[in-house]
Design brief:
heterodimer; A: 75% helix; globular; B: 13 helices; 16 strands; Leu-bd (chain B); BCAA_transport (chain B)
């Protein structure tokens, strides 16, 4: 029985899931916007890292801050120019808008990059410990996921902009009366979500093939992770990601890989009924 | 005062109030027009363009495959038209490929196939990539009695509905798996334990099931047999189980992104076997590019390889002539089986349409059913279910970053390599 290996597989996968979900969770929790662009942002980050590596030999880790900043800019503009126009409308309106924008971005990427799967073939190898194999690139991804989540947690808790974001989430009108530029804060929040997606994309370019075929899968995972972990708290994405990774790994081993995704979704449905706030989500954000 | 319900014409007759002379003139004019139409009919059809409908996935997840089909469709049409078209009953007809982007969306493929038949008057439909979407377009073709040619569908289930208007140029999956199993057992007699992991999707699932059946029939022990869901981003639990089962042969099916991920994770988790087969990954250049050294010695089955030396009818008399033409339009990239099969299907039409003697759907269907020819792509002969049953399928392996053909002997360019740990 490779129980140790199964647990490690689940934790490493879960950290990657957390990495892709944290930005999505922030935008959903703060802006009440289900950002359908999130999967495409991740893939765009992956493509930028891949082409920089292929064309100029730039290591993905060097590209990470550059891609993150670039995606922040894109996210800021998308929110400021488009989503802010309808941000107070019902959630279905913003969902439809981001869905339309996602179709545009997705097809632009497919046309210009093609859907051919590409990968940064760094192949950093792995380490074995007590009979458990751990690939270095996934461990690196796990570490980066934890760091990014930690930084975001700190920013939300201890920085001026973080407090502004929380204030706008709690009471938009009161925040505006206190002198907070609400639309600017919204754009920054969406920008941070895109920044996290771009960073996740760079990490994923080292682990998964980069292809537009994966945009929907990433978005679906982010959605499930947020529901399991809960909205309104940064650690929610981390907890949800790790929980989903472990569930998929364990159920894949015992029930077959065919059923691991189904069991993950089943857990999500159960949580929606039993505990709509998710495992560590805050009341009022669900 | 009485008023007519008819508008007065300038000649003073109410509309509909035809005097005898006018009626006679009307009849004569009608007869003249009908006669002219009867005379002009054959003349018009003599110059009629052969319209081939092609719903293509030019955007969306299957855009790569759609583009491959589009490339060879255009190449063939250009070449045929430059050669004067296709002769039917002594009359030369130009060909036209009518393309629509169905955006990788199955139901839309069906709608566009219908539009191609009903509005654009397509004489034939070239089915899009994949077994699932082929079923959809094939069903539409059958409804209107317009033949559908599937150049990228190999699952027997697609042809199980006995659609008399559906023909496929790829060979049944079972042919591939039996050939592969026999070949590997012959070259590696120690082979005894096989692990099969397949994607839960029409073609990959059918390949996985066919491999399990072929392995069991050949007396091999199937030590792992599972499917993974579409959308799986991690194969570690399957591969951990496979590692524990210690197979001699690992057989994984899926599409390129799945297989790149699986091969990568095999390396990460130290999963080894003397023989690793992935279908259809190595058939594509992007598999080798995406894996680098990890692609080495991975074997696969394919429906065609450009190193084969076939001769046949049509604008490409030899495999090499097609290969050279393709290199010119692809900036030096090699064609794969999608290019080969789809171009082969069109080259086949150069033999089928003259035999059909007309552009009527039923006549073309009958001529297709009787097809037994050689093309640059290989033999094409349709069985009872409409699948090509005349193919000798190559077994290939990645060796030194290029594809080597291991089987059949007639086109082999290398020997099977066993994977080193």
């Amino acid at each position: 029985m490779d129980f140790g290996q199964i647990i490690v597989n689940g934790l490493v996968l879960g950290a990657l899931y957390a990495c892709l979900a944290v930005g999505f969770s922030l935008v959903w929790g703060v802006l009440n916007v289900i950002n359908m662009l999130h999967g495409s942002f991740i893939v765009l980050g992956g493509y930028l890292a891949f082409f920089a590596w292929q064309s100029f030999g730039v290591h993905p880790l060097i590209m990470l801050p550059i891609v993150a900043l670039l995606l922040f800019g894109i996210g800021y503009l998308v929110q400021f120019l488009f989503i802010n126009k309808v941000v107070t409308a019902p959630v279905l309106t913003t969902l439809t808008l981001t869905f339309g924008l996602d179709m545009i971005l997705y097809n632009i990427m497919t046309v210009y990059f093609s859907a051919t799967p590409r990968r940064v073939t760094l192949d950093l190898g792995g380490i074995s410990f007590l009979g458990v194999d751990m690939p270095i690139d996934r461990l690196l991804g796990m570490a980066l996921a934890l760091i990014l989540t930690g930084v975001l947690f700190y920013v939300m808790r201890a920085s001026r902009i973080g407090r502004a974001i929380v204030a706008v989430r709690m009471d938009r009108a009161a925040a505006a009366l206190m002198g907070i530029r609400v639309n600017h804060v919204y754009a920054i929040t969406f920008g941070i979500g895109a920044l996290m997606a771009g960073a996740a994309g760079v990490i994923f370019a080292m682990v998964f093939p980069v292809t537009t075929n994966l945009t929907g899968m990433y978005l679906g995972k982010a959605f499930v992770v947020c529901v399991i972990g809960g909205l309104g708290s940064v650690p929610g994405a981390l907890v949800g990601g790790l929980a989903l990774g472990l569930i998929e790994s364990i159920s894949g081993h015992f029930f077959g890989p065919q059923h691991s995704l189904t069991i993950g979704f089943l857990l999500m449905l159960i949580l929606l009924v039993v505990k709509p706030t998710g495992l560590v989500g805050k009341k009022g954000y669900e | 005062m009485k008023t007519s319900i008819f508008n007065k014409r300038q000649d003073g007759h109410a509309a509909g109030d035809h005097p005898k002379t006018v009626r006679t003139l009307g009849y004569m004019a009608g007869l003249a027009i009908a006669g002219a139409a009867m005379l002009a009919g054959p003349l018009a059809s003599a110059q009629e363009t052969i319209r081939i409908g092609a719903p293509l996935a030019l955007t969306g997840g299957l855009a790569d495959e759609g583009y491959k089909q589009q490339q060879v469709y255009r190449l063939w049409a250009e070449k045929v038209n430059a050669n004067g078209g296709i002769e039917i009953n002594g009359q030369a007809h130009q060909v036209e490929i009518l393309e629509y982007d169905y955006q990788s969306d199955g139901p839309r493929a069906g709608q566009l196939a219908e539009r191609l038949i009903t509005r654009d008057r397509a004489h034939l439909i070239m089915a899009p990539f994949g077994s699932g979407h082929t079923v959809i377009t094939g069903t539409v073709g059958e409804r209107y009695r317009v033949p559908t040619i599937a150049c990228v569908a190999s699952s027997e289930s697609v042809f199980a509905n006995q659609n008399p208007y559906l023909f496929g140029t790829l060979s049944p999956n079972a042919n591939m798996t039996v050939t592969m199993t026999d070949f590997l057992m012959e070259r590696h007699p120690e082979l005894s334990r096989v692990a099969v992991l397949g994607r839960d999707d029409v073609f990959p699932k059918s390949m996985a099931e066919a491999t399990v059946a072929a392995a069991e029939a050949a007396g091999l022990e199937v030590v792992y047999n599972e499917l993974y869901s579409v959308g799986t981003l991690d194969h570690s639990s399957s591969l951990t189980s496979i590692r524990r089962a210690e197979p001699d042969w690992i057989y994984i099916t899926g599409y390129t992104q799945d297989l790149i991920l699986a091969r990568r994770q095999m390396s990460d988790l130290n999963v080894h076997a003397p023989i690793v087969t992935m279908v259809t990954g190595p058939a594509y250049e992007e598999f080798i590019e995406g894996l680098g050294s990890l692609a080495e010695d991975v074997s696969s089955s394919s429906w065609w390889h450009h190193s084969a030396t076939y001769e046949g009818t049509g604008v490409w008399p030899t495999t090499d002539s097609f290969y050279q033409d393709f290199l010119e339009i692809s900036n030096g990239a090699d064609p794969d089986y999608v290019h080969g099969s789809c171009a082969g299907a069109l080259a086949m039409l150069e033999d089928v349409l003259p035999r059909a003697g007309s552009l009527d759907g039923s006549a073309i269907r009958d001529a297709l059913a009787e097809t037994d020819i050689e093309t640059f792509y290989g033999s094409i002969r349709f069985g009872e279910n409409g699948m090509n049953e005349a193919r000798e399928l190559p077994i290939i392996q990645v060796q030194d970053e290029r594809i080597v053909v291991l089987y059949p002997e007639s086109i082999a360019t290398g020997e099977l390599r066993i994977l080193s740990r």
